[in-house]
Amino acid sequence: MAPGRNDPCFCGSSKKYKHCCMDNISKQHTSIFDDITQTVAMSPELSLDELNLVVQHKNTERNNKANADFAGLSPAQMHNWIYAPFSELEGVIINTPVDLSTSPVMCYLALIIDEAMQQGGSFKTTSKGNLPAKLVKQATELLPKFAVAEYSTPVSINEFAGSNEDKFNALHYTRILAIAAGIIYNKSGRLHIKKTAQKQYQTHGLKAFYLPMFEAATTKYNWAYFDSFPDDIDLRDFWVFMLWRVQSHGSIERLIEEVATAFPDLLLQLTPNEYHDSKSLLGLLIESRFINRCLQFWGFISVDPKRFSNGKPIPIKAEMLPLLTKTFQFTI
Is 258 in contact with 245 (CB distance < 8 Å)? Predict the structure, then answer.
C-alpha cells in the first residue's frame, strides 16, 4: 500500500511523506507516464499485457541508468548500498587483511581479549564498569605506532590516549563495538569474553573479529554517541557511498558536496544558525561521525587536525592509509 500524504515516509527520514519523497516519486511517475503515452501513440495496437511489459522495461531501464547526482551510480546500486544487509552489498568486496597492527580498534580489542584470556576468560572492571587503569595505560602506549601520531595533539583532547576509559574515546568506542558484535559482555563487575569468541580467537586469532566489529560499527553503533549536535542525522545508511567517494579522491570537501548532492533531503533536516548553513552543518557531522570517529578509529585514514593558518581556514588534509584499500575493493 502506498503511504498517505501525512504518513511517515518509507525512506526512514522520520518526515511526513508529503515533505520527503512524494515529489520525487511523483516526478518519476510523471516521466514514466509520458513515456507510456508516447509508446501508445506510436503503437496503439499494443495489448494491456504488452503495455505492462513496456512499463517494467522502462522502470528497469531507469533504475539501472547512471545518475549524475549519485556520482554515476544507478538508483538500483544506491538502493542496495543503503538497504542491503552487510553481507549482501553489491559492487564492493570487503576483505580481512593479514596485518591488522595499524588499526587502533583492532589493537585495543586484542589488549582486551588477551587480558581476559590470561585471567580465565574475564577480568574485573572499575567501580564505574570501565576498563582497568592498567589496560588503559597499555592502550595509550600504542599511540606511536598509529598514523594519527604524526599529528601532535594534547593528551587532554587526544582521542587515542587517556588516563581512563572515559577520557579515551577510541578505546571506549572499541569496547562498545565489541559488546555490540557479541564478543564481550559485562556481568557482576567483570568483563567477560564469550566462550565462542574465545574459541574463535584461539583458532583464527584477531582476524576472526575484524568483519563482525566493522559490521557492528556500521549497523549497530550510534554514530552520534560522542557528539552533542542538536540535529539527529543518521549517516550510517550512507557509509558505503561515502567510503567509495573518499577512497576515490581523498577530498573531504568534495565528499561533503557529493553527499549533499546525492541526498539533498539531509539538508532539510538540519537547522541553520548564525554560524553555519545546512551544508556546513552536514560537513561537521560527516567529519565528526564518519571521518574522525570511524575511519580514523579504524586506521583507514589519517587527518591533519589543523584547520586554520594565519587566521584563515585551510582545506582538510586527509591521507588514505594502506589498510583502507586492503579492506575495501570497489568494482563499480
Answer: yes
